[in-house]
Design goal:
- The strands form two sheets. This protein has a three-stranded mixed sheet, with helices on one face. A two-stranded parallel sheet has the order 3-4.
- By secondary structure, it is mainly alpha-helical.
- A hairpin with a 5-residue loop joins strand 1 and strand 2 (47-50).
- The chain is 48% helix and 5% strand.
- The chain has a single domain (2-34, 53-239), classed as Biosynthetic peptidoglycan transglycosylase-like (Penicillin binding protein transpeptidase fold, Orthogonal Bundle), CATH 1.10.3810.10.
């Protein structure tokens, strides 16, 4: 068993060094992260139009400050409790994963950090040993290139949320019809759970599985009071906003990216009380 473990460690070290050298020569492709959906907003912040990306995804740029602190208080203990301190790899989790691999001959637990998940989300690949080693090497490279908040922003923007939804803001807008800066504990737990199995835990299609996943997330994080997890959040199932077609198309053709706020009013009372729907369509 020890010889087998030593063999795996030597292979991991050799491949990590090789991949690290290749990553220095050929930096990781960040195009998926940089190509977020274009949002056209009313002056009150209401979405008028959201375009999908060229690969057909609804991927809204999301920063750590865009999400409710309760979401982060659930995410990090569940996915990567040492995120703020490790160099891209959680050594204890990795050692456990390697030990299980040597005993069972296949991957039992991933031991993936959020940084490793970001590496895989940017460059999807098979979930095998070589892929895991690639994630390790790239994660360490990411930690050297980016701050922790930048890496967290990549995860928040790219996390798979079922169907063509990617990122916490996309999921919150579509499933709950709200921005993720004010979430209930159960809503926050659901957004933590979905990326673990996006197709199986889609709340609009598999509410029972999603409810059980929420309960598991809450049970693992007793410091966050989720309340009654059987009180599953109402899933709105909204389609992306499609208003102000001509204005939105014109802004897109001009090459605007990510987010554009116009002076057009949305439907809120705040906005209608300050100019109404007849306000100038300018940007």
């Amino acid at each position: 068993m020890r010889k087998r473990l030593a063999k795996y460690l030597v292979v991991v070290a050799a491949l990590s060094i090789t991949i690290g050298i290749l990553d220095r020569v050929f930096p990781p492709d960040q195009s998926r992260y940089r190509e977020a959906s274009l949002e056209i907003l009313a002056r009150d912040g209401e979405p008028l139009r959201v375009f999908t990306t060229r690969d057909g995804m609804l991927r809204l740029a999301t920063l750590p400050d865009d999400v409710d602190p309760r979401y982060l208080n659930l995410l990090l203990p569940v996915e990567d409790r040492h995120f703020w301190w490790h160099p891209g790899v959680d050594r204890l989790a990795l050692a456990r994963a390697v030990w299980q691999l040597t005993r069972h001959g296949h991957v039992v637990s991933g031991g993936s950090t959020l940084t490793m998940q970001v590496a895989r989300l940017l460059s999807p690949h098979r979930h095998d040993v070589v892929g895991k080693i690639t994630d390790i090497a790239r994660a360490m490279k990411f930690e050297a290139r980016f701050t922790k908040r930048e890496i967290l922003a990549m995860y928040l923007t790219l996390a798979p949320m079922g169907g063509n939804l990617e990122g916490v803001r996309s999921a919150s807008r579509i499933y709950f019809d709200r921005e993720p800066d004010h979430l209930s504990p159960v809503q926050a737990a659901l957004l933590v759970a979905i990326p673990q199995s996006p197709s199986r835990l889609r709340p609009d299609r598999h509410p029972e599985a999603a409810t059980l996943a929420v309960a598991r997330i809450c049970a693992r994080t007793p410091t966050v009071n989720c309340g009654d997890t059987s009180d599953f959040p109402k899933i709105m199932g909204q389609r992306p906003a499609r208003h102000a077609h001509h204005l939105a198309d014109a802004l897109r053709q001009e090459g605007h990216t990510i987010r554009v706020r116009t002076t057009r009013c949305g439907t809120s009372n705040w906005c209608r009380g300050r100019g109404g729907q007849g306000s100038t369509l300018s940007w």
